[in-house]
Amino acid sequence: MANAAAVSHNFRQDLLHGNHAFGTTASSRTNAARDTFAIALYASTGSITYTNSAYTSSGEGSSSNYTAGGQAVATNNPAVATATSLSTGYWNPGTSVTWSTVTFTGSNAVDLAMLYNSTNGNKAVATFALGTIGQGQQPNAGTFTLTMPANDATNALIRIT
Amino acid sequence: MTQKVCTAIGDIPDTDLETQTLEQDCGDTIIMSRDWKYKGADPALAEYVGQMVRRDCWVTMKHGISAAGTAEL
After folding, report:
1. Does A125 reside within a domain?
2. Domain chopping of chain B, boundaries
3. Chain A nearest C-alpha distance from B62 (Å)
4. In this structure, is residue A112 part of a structural domain?
């Protein structure tokens, strides 16, 4: 077998584990404990995009039984899938997320969810459309459930390829 | 067994409710909603709840986000 140049398979999984610090100063983080990630919901009248670097309450959905900041998601270990020189590190929340007896109607309808790191400065990870942007979901005194995709290299919530 | 939906001014038996389920494929997500609507004859309840009693929503993520990069150097 000859040499081969490519990004290490494990690197993409290790990024999700927080095992690399490329900065010019030593990382202040020890990774002794896992971070907590949370999901917040945003109203369709908001202006949250990929340019938001952290969670914000601006434009967030509002309802009884919904706490600002959303709710933490269950932990899950990152994984990696490999194929020749390619690899995909991926991660999914451990379970789906549900809010009970919430009302997001009218201008408060929600069309976006933000996954963020509530342990480390509320740093944003990604935003996800809840259906079609602009056409917010409107639970009314009902249950709102966000079901996670299959936990694999093709569908998982976060994938690094 | 008759189930009830509780409101502040009284309970609504499920015989006075009709449900409507709507499923929509939005590409990366599937949206399903279920509406509970009042069809009873009690004018006080009709005025209080209007037509809509409750709506449940399920958002199923089919695909997440991929941060794709160059595979080989």
Report:
1. yes
2. 4-61
3. 5
4. yes
